[in-house]
């Protein structure tokens, strides 16, 4: 009996679609980190489409490059932009950005798990593993985790409730605090009713978009308003696991996990060290701090230190900073905030672990210890890998964008690190980039937001049991 060509062709198509579907399902279920990449990319495509509709802009048109870059900057809570958010986007466009920033700030995997918890009232093991991977890269693989974790699987449900509740409470409190301050600053009651929650979301998520023309410049002398923004940036940058630990043991420091102690101590040290550096380097710069009195200079130095960590808000023109200050800012942006936070960078705990490892090596100790706890070697390897991958991404992006734009390397490097650290500060370079360089910068933002966690998870996932050991030979190092 002859085979029907039509049915045979349809069967081949069906089998091919099944194979494609099986490949996609395997890709998304075999690793939470792969699932995160896919969901982030899907959200970026969705928000690119939403920001491209005519009603989302005041001009009725947003170019593809600008829509893609704004979508990436929104979902990855960065704050860099190729257009003026305040004037280019309509109220609908700003609502889209507001929603996207909150989705990206909480974390895509965390938000998906929260929705699943709300709908089903419970979390299965796979959902717990996916949610836990957002709070700890070492959870993002299928193998066993032998060492103690900051957030145990049994506590994932509580952590998710903390994420949702802390986001609502902190953003709501900040918005309530900002509303009368905006009224006193001359903003109309209706405009302040919208701008207060917008600023609250941009501060807590460490994004830095501003809804009004001129950004924070009109509020440069309003220290109360700027202090509220700094507090929100700080709470967003320490990370949800730290907020969870503080919620459980706020006044009992001895019960804080090691991660919480390292995050808070390193964050505070960098905050004061950065402010001191900016104060010393910029006090005589007539284009930044040189025209201010001692109090203004000191406050603005602290504000700039907080914002270069990942906040993204700016009062002074970053492009007018001395080159030495740009280097300090680049270093702070590269470090970023806490793990599983709304901030970017290699994370403060990564820096702390590496610093402790260097100190232990200098002291000739066999193990790395802190606060009566031993930090295992796999955590040290992951920290080193995160720094190496981060430096590689920054270097390659800087080379490519500098070649395309032919702009000064110092300016390109600053904006690239700002993109990688999802900070949002710019020397003014990003807004003037050509489309090919814009796409490279967007890719840098994407890798900076999901890259450190995903790459750390990939490193952890590659460890397999090995029943033999190779002969030892020591190369010369140093």
SSE map:
Blueprint: H1 5-29, H2 32-52, H3 64-75, H4 85-88, H5 91-106, H6 108-120, H7 125-135, H8 156-184, H9 189-204, H10 223-238, H11 240-249, H12 258-282, H13 294-311, H14 323-335, H15 348-363, E1 368-370, E2 373-375, H16 377-405, H17 409-420, H18 435-461
Antiparallel strand pairs: 1-2
In short:
It is found in: Cell membrane. This protein has 478 residues and is mainly alpha-helical.
Approximate strand percentage: under 5%
Report the end-to-end length measured between terminal Cα atoms: 76 Å
Mean pLDDT: 82
List how many beta strands DSSP finds.
Answer: 2
Q: Give the C-alpha Rg.
A: 23 Å
Task: Walk me through this protein's architecture.
The chain is mainly α and 478 residues long. It has one domain. The protein contains 18 helices and two strands. The chain has helices at residues 5-29, 32-52, 64-75, 85-88, 91-106, 108-120, 125-135, 156-184, 189-204, 223-238, 240-249, 258-282, 294-311, 323-335, 348-363, 377-405, 409-420, 435-461, and strands at residues 368-370, 373-375. A hairpin with a 2-residue loop joins strand 1 and strand 2 (373-375). Helix 9 runs parallel beside helix 10 and helix 16 (377-405) packs antiparallel against helix 18. The radius of gyration is 23 Å and the shape is globular. It starts with a helix and ends in a 17-residue tail after the last helix.
């Amino acid at each position: 009996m002859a085979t029907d060509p039509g049915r045979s062709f349809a069967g081949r198509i069906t089998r091919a679609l099944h194979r494609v579907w099986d490949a996609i399902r395997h890709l998304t279920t075999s690793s939470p980190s792969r699932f995160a990449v896919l969901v982030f990319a899907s959200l970026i495509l969705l928000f690119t489409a939403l920001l491209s509709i005519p009603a989302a802009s005041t001009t009725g048109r947003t170019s593809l490059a600008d829509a893609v870059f704004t979508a990436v900057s929104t979902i990855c809570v960065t704050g860099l932009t190729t257009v003026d958010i305040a004037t280019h986007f309509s109220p609908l466009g700003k609502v889209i950005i507001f929603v996207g920033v909150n989705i990206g700030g909480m974390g895509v995997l965390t938000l998906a798990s929260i929705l699943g918890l709300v709908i089903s009232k419970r979390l299965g093991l796979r959902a717990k593993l996916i949610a836990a991977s957002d709070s700890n890269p070492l959870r993002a693989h299928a193998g066993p985790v032998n060492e103690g974790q900051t957030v145990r699987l049994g506590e994932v449900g509580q952590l998710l409730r903390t994420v949702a509740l802390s986001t609502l409470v902190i953003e709501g409190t900040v918005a309530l605090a900002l509303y009368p301050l905006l009224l006193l600053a001359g903003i109309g009651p209706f405009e302040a009713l919208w701008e207060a929650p917008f600023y609250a979301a941009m501060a807590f998520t460490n994004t830095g978009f501003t809804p009004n023309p001129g950004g924070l410049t009109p509020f440069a002398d309003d220290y109360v308003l700027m202090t509220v923004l700094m507090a929100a940036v700080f709470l967003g940058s320490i990370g949800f696991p730290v907020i969870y630990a503080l919620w459980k043991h706020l006044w009992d420091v001895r019960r804080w996990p090691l991660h919480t102690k390292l995050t808070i101590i390193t964050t505070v040290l960098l905050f004061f060290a950065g402010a001191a550096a900016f104060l010393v380097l910029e006090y005589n710069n007539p284009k930044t701090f040189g025209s201010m009195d001692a109090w203004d200079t000191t406050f603005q130095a602290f504000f700039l230190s907080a914002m270069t960590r990942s906040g993204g808000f700016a009062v002074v023109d970053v492009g007018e900073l001395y080159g030495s200050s740009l280097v300090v800012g680049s270093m702070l942006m590269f470090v970023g905030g806490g793990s599983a936070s709304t901030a970017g960078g290699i994370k403060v705990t990564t820096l702390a672990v590496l610093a402790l490892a260097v100190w232990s090596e200098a002291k000739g100790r066999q193990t790395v210890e802190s606060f009566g706890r031993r930090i295992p070697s796999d955590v040290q390897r992951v920290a080193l890998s995160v720094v190496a991958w981060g430096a590689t991404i920054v270097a390659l992006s800087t080379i490519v964008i500098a070649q395309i734009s032919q702009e000064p390397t110092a300016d390109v490097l600053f904006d690239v690190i700002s993109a990688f650290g999802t900070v949002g500060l710019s020397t003014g370079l990003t807004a003037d980039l050509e489309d090919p360089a814009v796409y490279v910068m967007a890719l840098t933002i994407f890798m900076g937001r999901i890259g450190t966690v995903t790459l750390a998870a990939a490193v952890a996932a590659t460890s397999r049991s090995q029943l033999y050991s190779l002969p030892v030979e020591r190369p010369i190092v140093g």
